[in-house]
Amino acid sequence: MLALIVRFTLLSVAKTMSSVSTMTPSEPPGSPEQRLQKLLAVPGAEPSRVNDLLLLRPEAATEPGEGRGNSHVVFFHGDIQNFQEEMSLQPDGAPWLSWSLEQVALTLGRRFPDRHVWVVRASRMHLHKFSCYVNFVDSNMFGAPEHGPYSADCGSFRHLRALLSHGMQRANLPDPLQPQGGADGVPSGFSLTLVGFSKGCVVLNQVAYELAGARADPDMSHFVKSVSDMYWLDGGHPGGSETWVTNKRVLKELASSRVSLHAHVTPYEVCDPMRAWVGREHALFIKTLEEFGACPSKKLHFEGEPPSIQSHFRVIQEF
Question: For the chain, what is the domain count?
């Protein structure tokens, strides 16, 4: 598969170790590649908890300080996926360069052309291929999560808010989200769409587990209310359960949150007889949400095709 080779140049000497833009002089003004910016080691809820980010600005926002509204999409990737340069150096990653983080950002930019698109790189890639979102949820070395309730000091909501705030400040976006605080810390018109793919869905699941506590926290509730949509794309991880949320208490809270919920799957995950629990949990996730009055959108993609890793990745294009 052919892949776009994205080249990086330094934004400035002061940001050499922390912020890199993909634009080059030969790229036409306003091109997607010119709007793509890499931000390295962005701190979250604690200075030691950092994630690398990719930011794709909206089509009308190619210069620092410009922006179109304050709508944001945050994407959490799956296994194998990494920055293109790093994937090209790994035997397991090189065949899948079309699904590098840069390529996914550009794909999401076409899906959400009027929003800022953020791709969050997992803080650890075990053996260069197993994504571990330990900054968002307790996980083992292969990325299988151990979900827990909301904590005012750490957890997915706290880390995500601080990560976006620091990322927006470093990217010099106007009217940035503040890392903490009540209504005054959330800019007017700020909205958030969360998208998890494969292993990245563990972050969305942890968000669901934290929802009740976060909504009750006056310092976090306004940020929680800014989440408009959540997309689960073919969720999967190496644990033997909890690939999809099945806890009724958690799903009741999620159903009452007024967040638009979307579940897109492929036979690769939900029709695998060796991991039959994934399909059962997905069906229970949908059924329970509907019983609690939610109307999640749902679709099985590539139903007539044999399960494959190719179709698994393609859901990123088709959802």
Answer: 1
Query: Where in the sequence is the domain holding 73, given as residue range(s)?
Result: 17-318
CA distances to 243, 262, 290 from 156, rounded to whole Å, are 17, 20, 25
Give 88-112 as a DSSP string: HTSTTTGGGGGGSHHHHHHHHHHHS
Beta partners for residue 224, in sequence order: none
Residues 272-298 have a mean pLDDT of: 96
| Mean local confidence (pLDDT), 143-147 | 90
Residue with tokens 């750490």: 154
Q: What does the block give as tokens for 46?
A: 């604690």
Residue type, 127: L
Residue 87 lies inside a defined structural domain of this protein = yes
Q: Can you point out the beta strands (E) in the chain?
A: 9-10, 19-21, 36-43, 50-56, 71-76, 116-120, 124-126, 130-132, 138-139, 145-146, 191-197, 227-233, 260-265, 297-300
Residue 172 half-sphere exposure toward CB, CA atoms < 13 A:
11
Place of tokens 């309730």: 149
In a domain, 256, yes or no: yes
* Global model pTM greater than 0.85: yes
In a domain, 170, yes or no: yes
The dihedral of CA 202, 164, 213, 283: what is its sign? negative
232-260 pLDDT tens trace: 999 988 777 789 999 999 999 999 999 99
22 in a structural domain: yes
Angstrom distance (rounded) from CA 109 to CA 112: 5
Compute the average pLDDT of residues 45-62.
88
How far apart CA 96 and CA 87 sit, in angstroms, is 8
- What tens digit of pLDDT does each residue of 19-39 get? 444 443 345 556 777 889 999
pLDDT value, residue 148? 93
Which CATH number characterizes residue 143's domain? Answer: 3.40.50.1820
